[in-house]
Task: structure prediction
Amino acid sequence: MRFDVDTYREILDTLTRNKSRSFLTGFGVFWGVFMLVSLIGGGQGMKEMLNKNFEGFATNSAFVWTQRTSKAYKGFRKGRWWSMDLKDVERLRQRVPELDVIAPVVFMPWNASSTAYHEDRKVTINVQGVTPEYADVVGPKLYYGRYINDMDLKHHRKVCVLGKKIYKDLFKEGGNPCGQSIRIDSTYYQVVGVDYNTSSISINGTSEEMVTLPFTMVQQAYNRGQQIDVIAVTARKGVVVSDITDRLRETVARAHYVDPTDEQGAMVFNTEVLFQLLDNLFKGVNFLIWLVGLGTLLAGAIGVSNIMMVTVRERTTEIGIRRAIGATPKMILSQIISESILLTLVAGMSGILFGVTILQMLEMYNTEDGIVETHFQVSFWTAIFCAFVVSSLGVLAGLAPAARAMSIKPVDAMRDE
Result:
């Protein structure tokens, strides 16, 4: 197949001979590629947006907390309130060896909110007391500073980590707030970190509206004693959390005279099941994206093939003259396929460029504080694959018209005029 300058001039002359038809034909391919790129990028962005609701959380984690019992047990009536304590942490460590991290959490106060103050600004907040191990469960996204550490617990330090929304409301001027103080109700705390985690998984409020304190500080300052509100755990590598859920409930429930089968009284939230549901959902979404995108692209390629067939029919006399003066079938084949490839490539690359531009605009719209919140862009290799598909469809679209052109006999072509 020749690709010299004269060949290109001849191809361009043929395609521009009927500009409207060439444009409308190429638009089918353009739209198919644009749809494919946009659906892939949009699907990636949608997946990332949903994953942000669970951002940072370990996929093999679970949370245990208490509610009113729904079953009577050992002389205790149903409907009673009960609570866990620090001894439950040790019980789980001894009786469920499959657990890797066991982190107690206490709230201040439970199911209520407090008020934080900085200079002339105030905001309603939720407060939690945690141990450093809790970071292995929720995966904080620290924009400034650090998380709660062992020394904070040991010395009962009055330090805190602010959620994203709390930081923006109290420090509207921006900048690093670490080292500055805020007042929570009547007590001052020094800011040591800012957590930009936006996960919507919450037990006592979202992470954006949460202020995190050392576990021992909450115990001491708010007279919580040995009581805890939530136990967050992660399983060891290779362990399926669903396999140990019943043992988690049983270990905690029996110690407090709660029926081990009371799923309402001793709640266990397994994030592993949630992540599996998301994975299955996006497998189906990705299949649908490729099915719709490639189907639209194939429809465009069929349109190119049909129009090329019409073009060949209109050029019957021209092709016959070429054959009469010595053009070989291979030269005719090369000409028609080259026209098809050029038309699909120009339209396809325009579709990729337009799709990438739209996705880039969506990324810019979802950028905050210089951080891209959601990535809608397709990968380089995805774009290369789309270009390869377009080129392949260009060849396939030109085969039938080329075969038609090769079958034309010079004598028949002259007579056709």
Remarks:
- The longest helix spans residues 271-314.
